[in-house]
Amino acid sequence: MSAATTIRSRIGSLEPKTAIVLGSGLGKLAERVSDPVRISYGDLDGFPGSGVSGHAAELVAGVMGACPVLMLSGRAHYYEHGDASAMRAPLETLHALGVEKLFLTNAAGSLHPEMPAGSVMQITDHINFSGSNPLFGEKSDRRFVGLTNAYDADMRAALDDAAERCGHFLHRGVYMWFSGPSFETPAEIRMARTIGADAVGMSTVPEAILARFLGMRVAAASVITNLAAGMSGDELSHQETKDMAPIGGARLADILFETVQTLV
Ligand code: HPA
């Protein structure tokens, strides 16, 4: 049975037009879904297995406030198997179920001392520095996806308005995708700053490309867990990401909860 059929059979008449991919620190947002239906990725054809500590691997469906939503709690990363299209099946499934607006979240390193750990940044644009693309191998001419307006202006404005209502400062910036899993070097971070990045991370960009390919509207935001390599003198670690992500994650969860209420 296709993943979409499995999900449809479990969620009945729920018609979510909005979906959220929960990155590090955002897992708790799923707790704000009332009467949640939880489906393990293992039960969904084509969905990834659980890959990274700190990430769940389940789809959560239900209503958040007044908005029907689907949440992907946990994602596959390019660095797990070198496959940039690892999230294609889950995103195709959301699209098949009628999702039109997709919010992507992640943990990221900051390139600005004035945007420290605990901050939240709305992604205005991205730089793909991985050398890869989730549409490698795609045959149709639809592969030539325009990314001039990859991050939807109306959804971005909704995030800004929601942040203001929540009293949380929402930075804006360019997210640069590095393949990982090793962290960047200080020299790479100097380069990233020079070419216009504001934050660096290991996810989200392939999902944004796939979602635009599928015709979904996209917005994205980063939870800042650290200053990037070479900026603090400390060695970076995944433990730090996991420890710090819930701080900005709580802020971003408030903002997203508030945002989706305006999209009902
Ligand atoms: N680099 C890449 N990915 C990250 C970082 C970082 O500094 N922090 C959290 N995710």
TrEMBL record:
One of its GO terms (biological process) is nucleoside metabolic process. It comes from the Bacteria. Phosphate binds at S24, H55, R75, A76, H77, A107, S203. Pathway: Purine metabolism; purine nucleoside salvage. GO terms for molecular function: purine-nucleoside phosphorylase activity. Its EC number is 2.4.2.1. CDD domains: PNP-EcPNPII_like (cd09009). Residues 18-259 form the Nucleoside phosphorylase domain. Keywords: Glycosyltransferase, Transferase. Homotrimer. NCBIfam families: PNPH-PUNA-XAPA, PRK08202.1, PUNP. Belongs to the PNP/MTAP phosphorylase family. The purine nucleoside phosphorylases catalyze the phosphorolytic breakdown of the N-glycosidic bond in the beta-(deoxy)ribonucleoside molecules, with the formation of the corresponding free purine bases and pentose-1-phosphate. This is Purine nucleoside phosphorylase. It comes from Flavimaribacter sediminis. The lineage of its organism: Bacteria, Pseudomonadati, Pseudomonadota, Alphaproteobacteria, Hyphomicrobiales.
